[in-house]
């Protein structure tokens, strides 16, 4: 019998082509031959045999990947050292036992170096941009860190911009990203640990947290979930996100991602755990709560009162983009008596020539807009202006003039669209875009009652979610009075004296700054002037 | 059946408040006006005191065996088989409660919000979300309560505040125009809708964290708040509409909200009351349904209530469709049978349980000693 | 309509029960199955018969004499 679940059943993972973890061969020639065979004679792998020492008794070879290494480093600090400086220094390399030790401890002038003795390590080093130094007659080898490839510099993040605040963004290189974090938090307790995930891509994934602030249980849970990943490729942090999130079948994101180092730094300081993935500028932050998707980093750089106002606007925009089309459908289809008479008259005169019921009208317009938006993202930059002309003129104005849709509907769609762009986080905007259609169907069948039912279902679902064990809707449900100072409102910084409760439970106090007051003398001067 | 999900005192209090408000806000003013006429508000205020006494009784029972839920307490006090019989009665009572509440939602929606919709469609939709919520568990529900509670209260407060300009104190006079027996009858009616079913909520009591004396106080405060809200809604309904009109409508609060004309934009405030009422009745229905599920799993010795949730949901939908032939029958039944029934469950049964439990404890102590 | 009803309940029951049994809740699963059969029979019965008397009448029959008895005692 056919079972639905068989679609998702895992096939046993294909084990062939895996490099056995055996020890290195002592013979240099054999090793190079093996490497050549395994790597299929790939052109970008460079083999450089040479002799170090006077008599040429010590034959060695470098293996590295062209393009991943900094050739200057290899020339200046490896080849020059081993071939020229070593002779000047008159180092004794003749006896087999001490030459290896001498090389390691006295000769190689590279900064980061490691020693290994297995074949799988050999390939790992070669392919990640290290230079491997093989010495004839030894079952061990060196790997010198010579990584250096063309990379994008630190630029302004493209997905989350800000008016005020730092303008640097993460890049595709994990080292740069960790450096950006270190530059912001110079605390010995900022711990960054790296592990490679992906059997083929061997992507570096770093877990960063501040020891003593982050909840050890959450850190442990992050490690546990990362250890469970058994896949062959990690190309973006999105892969990691899907592997470690609490619940797959939910429209709401339970892991936060951002390009902005300041958001990650702030998250670390609140006790969250960051997961950096090599090859993508998007860094993950867990646990992620619902309210987090409504907090922009700029809220904390602007004045507190303004930030509060903007935040309230954001929540309003969330509900507008979620409910405007469905409310329009419900009102025009079921509850005309609720619309003020004047408005009703003008609405119905507009809708007179429109051949579709309100639901179909709304569905057509919303779908059209979604298509436009997707086209706007994927199309080549050069045709951008064409799209906006088509969108604004043809689909908006012309559709109304042709009597296909009412102009009120165009306003509704525009309002929805604009509101959905307000969200500081793209993930939350996506979930709203999807949920909107569900609400439209409910509104078309049950009117306002349907919308209310939809809201209850949504809230039920939201309260049932957890992100790494922390209730998704906290601190609203469960209600935590102490944490309300950074939910709808944003207290001044001297008022944000404690960290969010459920995220870290051991180190809650953040600061102890008093509210700024004019000093007594100033106050007296003031009163004298008055 | 273990109660392994934990809720805190505040969440329990909010649940209790919503359970008390539940159907009462919309339905009781009408019946109170029928029974006690212009003295309905006196009846409502009297029921506050009666209700407090009853609630104290429940709390006392809850504290007698703090680790046992009501159903386990039954078996402790009366032995296995008699206890199971009591449990069965409570389960049937909450099933009746669930289906009548579901019918009320359906009736309200098709009468006031979206006419010409089949009752079955509304019932199925509403029960679906109840079943969904029940499957998610009590912890999720109480968190949802925390989200919705401020909104429900805010919306009801808006109604109360905006109705004040259209109040007419003359409608409440004469002060003692009705015989005391009628007023008492009305207040017992009010209690039968709002307070006596609260005994069901005490099935959850063992899962409440730290129900100490401070917790007791906040529970009582929550109850007082709910009763105060019901009272003020009654006063306003009667003083705005007059007792004749109030008793004439099935949902007088809704009609009253329709009359509010405060600001031009806000002239259709009845939606506000519909929303807040549907939200609060959601939780009332959930409690009835959840308690019946817990009772069933206790009776059958199931490890968890979740496996029987969906089939019971279908049965409740079926029951709701036939439970009241029409709203006239509903009103009559509420007056004639529901009142004595809920007195039996909400007053007689707790007293019997209290005595049984006490006797059992004394017997045990003597046995040991 | 009747057909649709039966199919819907059966599909829901199938999905629900299979997940219950997968989690090794054997006893619970059988009771659940029992309740599904009751629910199915009940809804078929409701669908076939137009006017079904309300079960509340039965409750009234039980409660009424008790009330009367209590009231008469109180009046005495």
Automatic annotation (TrEMBL), chain A:
Entry's Gene Ontology cellular component terms? plasma membrane
Matching InterPro entries, A to Z?
Spore_Ger, UPF0353/GerABKA_families
Q: Name one GO biological process term.
A: spore germination
The region called Disordered is annotated at 506-530
Residues passing through the membrane, by range? 273-294, 315-334, 379-398, 404-422, 434-460
Q: Tell me which UniProt keywords the record has, alphabetically.
A: Membrane, Transmembrane, Transmembrane helix
The reply on keyword Membrane is yes
Compartments in which it is found: Cell membrane; Membrane
Renumbered to this chain, the Basic and acidic residues biased-composition regions fall at: 508-530
The membrane topology noted for this protein in its Swiss-Prot or TrEMBL record is: Multi-pass membrane protein
Q: Which domain of life is it from?
A: Bacteria
**Hey, which family's this protein in?**
Belongs to the GerABKA family.
Q: Kindly give the PANTHER family that the UniProt entry links to this protein.
A: LEUCINE ZIPPER PROTEIN 4 (PTHR22550:SF5), SPORE GERMINATION PROTEIN (PTHR22550)
Q: What is this protein called?
A: Spore germination protein KA
From TrEMBL, chain B:
Q: Does the UniProt entry include the keyword Membrane?
A: yes
Query: What UniProt keywords are attached to this protein's entry?
Result: Germination, Membrane, Transmembrane, Transmembrane helix, Transport
Which Gene Ontology cellular-component terms appear in the entry? membrane
Q: Which GO terms describe its biological process?
A: spore germination
What highest taxon heads this organism's lineage?
Answer: Bacteria
Q: Which family does it belong to?
A: Belongs to the amino acid-polyamine-organocation (APC) superfamily. Spore germination protein (SGP) (TC 2.A.3.9) family.
- How is this protein named in the record? Spore germination protein
Taxonomic source organism: Pontibacillus marinus BH030004 = DSM 16465
TrEMBL record, chain C:
- Keywords on record: Membrane, Transmembrane, Transmembrane helix
TM segments? 28-46
How is this protein named in the record? Uncharacterized protein
Organism for this UniProt entry: Pontibacillus marinus BH030004 = DSM 16465
């Amino acid at each position: 019998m056919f079972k639905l679940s068989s679609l998702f059943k895992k096939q046993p993972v294909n084990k062939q082509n895996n490099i056995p973890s055996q020890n290195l061969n002592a013979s240099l020639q054999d090793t190079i031959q093996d490497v050549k065979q395994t790597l299929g004679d790939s052109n970008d792998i460079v083999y450089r045999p040479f002799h170090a020492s006077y008599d040429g008794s010590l034959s060695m070879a470098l293996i590295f990947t062209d393009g991943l290494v900094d050739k200057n480093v290899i020339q200046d600090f490896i080849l020059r050292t081993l071939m020229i400086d070593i002779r000047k220094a008159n180092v004794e390399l003749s006896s087999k036992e001490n030459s290896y030790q001498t090389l390691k401890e006295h000769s190689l002038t590279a900064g980061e170096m490691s020693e290994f003795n297995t074949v799988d390590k050999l390939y790992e080093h070669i392919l990640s941009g290290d230079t491997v130094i093989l010495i004839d007659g030894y079952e061990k080898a060196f790997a010198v860190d010579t990584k250096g490839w063309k990379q994008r510099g630190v630029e302004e993040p493209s997905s989350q911009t800000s008016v005020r605040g730092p303008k640097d963004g993460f890049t595709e290189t994990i080292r740069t990203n960790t450096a950006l974090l270190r530059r912001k938090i110079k605390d010995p307790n900022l711990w960054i640990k790296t592990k490679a995930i992906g059997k083929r891509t061997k992507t570096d994934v770093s877990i960063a947290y501040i020891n003593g602030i982050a909840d050890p249980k959450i850190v442990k849970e992050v490690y546990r979930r990362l250890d469970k990943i058994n896949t062959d490729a990690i190309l973006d942090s999105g892969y990691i996100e899907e592997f470690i999130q609490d619940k797959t079948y939910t429209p709401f994101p339970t892991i936060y991602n951002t390009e902005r180092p300041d958001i990650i730094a702030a998250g670390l300081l609140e006790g969250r755990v960051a997961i950096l993935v090599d090859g993508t500028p998007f860094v993950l932050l867990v646990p992620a709560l619902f309210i987090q998707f409504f907090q922009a980093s700029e809220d904390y750089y602007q004045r507190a009162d303004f930030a509060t106002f903007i935040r309230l606007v954001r929540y309003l925009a969330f509900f507008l983009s979620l409910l405007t089309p469905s409310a329009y459908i419900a009102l025009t289809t079921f509850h005309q008596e609720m619309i003020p008479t004047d408005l009703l008259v003008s609405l119905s005169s507009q809708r007179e020539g429109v051949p579709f019921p309100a639901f179909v009208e709304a569905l057509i317009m919303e779908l059209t807009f979604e298509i436009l938006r997707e086209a706007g993202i994927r199309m080549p930059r050069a045709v951008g202006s064409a799209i906006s002309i088509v969108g604004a003129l043809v689909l908006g104005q012309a559709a109304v003039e042709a009597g296909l849709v009412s102009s009120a509907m165009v306003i509704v769609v525009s309002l929805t669209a604009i509101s959905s762009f307000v969200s500081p986080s793209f993930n939350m905007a996506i979930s709203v875009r999807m949920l909107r259609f569900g609400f439209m169907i409910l509104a078309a069948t049950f009117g306002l009652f349907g919308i209310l039912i939809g809201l209850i279902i949504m809230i039920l679902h939201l309260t049932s979610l957890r992100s790494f064990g922390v209730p998704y809707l906290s601190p609203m449900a469960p209600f935590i009075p102490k944490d309300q100072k950074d939910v709808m409102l944003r207290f001044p910084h001297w008022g944000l004296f404690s960290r969010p409760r459920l995220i870290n439970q051991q180190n809650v106090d953040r600061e102890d700054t008093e509210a700024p007051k004019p000093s007594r003398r100033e106050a007296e001067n003031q009163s004298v002037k008055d | 059946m273990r109660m392994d999900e934990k809720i805190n005192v505040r969440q329990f209090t909010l649940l209790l408040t919503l359970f008390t408000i539940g159907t009462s806000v919309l339905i009781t003013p009408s019946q109170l006006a029928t029974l006690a006429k212009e003295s309905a508000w006196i009846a409502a205020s009297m029921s506050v005191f009666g209700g407090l006494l009853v609630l104290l009784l429940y709390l006392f029972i809850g504290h007698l065996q703090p680790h046992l839920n009501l159903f386990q307490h039954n078996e402790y006090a009366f032995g296995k088989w008699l206890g199971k019989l009591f449990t069965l009665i409570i389960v049937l009572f909450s099933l009746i409660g669930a289906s009548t509440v579901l019918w009320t939602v359906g009736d309200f929606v098709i009468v006031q919000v979206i006419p010409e919709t089949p009752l079955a469609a509304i019932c199925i939709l509403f029960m679906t979300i109840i079943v969904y919520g029940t499957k998610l568990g009590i912890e999720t529900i109480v968190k949802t309560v925390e989200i919705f509670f401020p909104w429900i209260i805010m919306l009801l407060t808006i109604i109360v505040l905006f109705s004040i300009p259209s109040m007419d104190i003359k409608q409440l006079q004469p002060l003692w125009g009705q015989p005391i027996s009628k007023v008492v009858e009305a207040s017992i009616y009010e209690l039968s809708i709002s307070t006596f079913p609260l005994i069901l909520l005490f099935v959850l009591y063992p899962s409440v964290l730290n129900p100490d004396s401070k917790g007791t106080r906040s529970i009582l405060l929550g109850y007082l708040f709910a009763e105060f809200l019901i009272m003020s809604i009654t006063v306003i309904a009667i003083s705005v509409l007059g007792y004749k009109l109030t008793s004439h409508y099935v949902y007088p609060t809704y009609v009253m909200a329709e009359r509010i004309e405060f600001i031009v934009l806000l002239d259709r405030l009845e939606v506000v009351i519909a929303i807040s009422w549907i939200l609060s009745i959601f939780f009332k229905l959930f409690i009835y349904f959840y308690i019946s599920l817990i009772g069933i799993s206790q009776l059958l010795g199931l490890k968890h209530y979740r496996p029987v949730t969906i089939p019971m949901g279908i049965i409740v939908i079926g029951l709701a469709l036939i439970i009241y032939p029409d709203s006239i029958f509903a009103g009559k039944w509420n007056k004639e049978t529901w009142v004595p029934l809920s007195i039996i469950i909400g007053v007689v049964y707790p007293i019997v349980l209290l005595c049984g439990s006490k006797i059992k404890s004394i017997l045990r102590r003597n046995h040991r000693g | 309509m009747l057909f649709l009803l039966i199919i819907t309940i059966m599909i829901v029951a199938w999905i629900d029960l299979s997940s219950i049994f997968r989690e090794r809740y054997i006893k619970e699963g059988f009771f659940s199955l029992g309740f599904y059969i009751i629910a199915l029979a009940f809804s078929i019965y409701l669908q076939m018969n137009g006017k079904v008397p309300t079960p509340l009448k039965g409750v009234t029959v039980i409660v009424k004499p008790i009330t009367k008895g209590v009231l008469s005692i109180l009046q005495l």
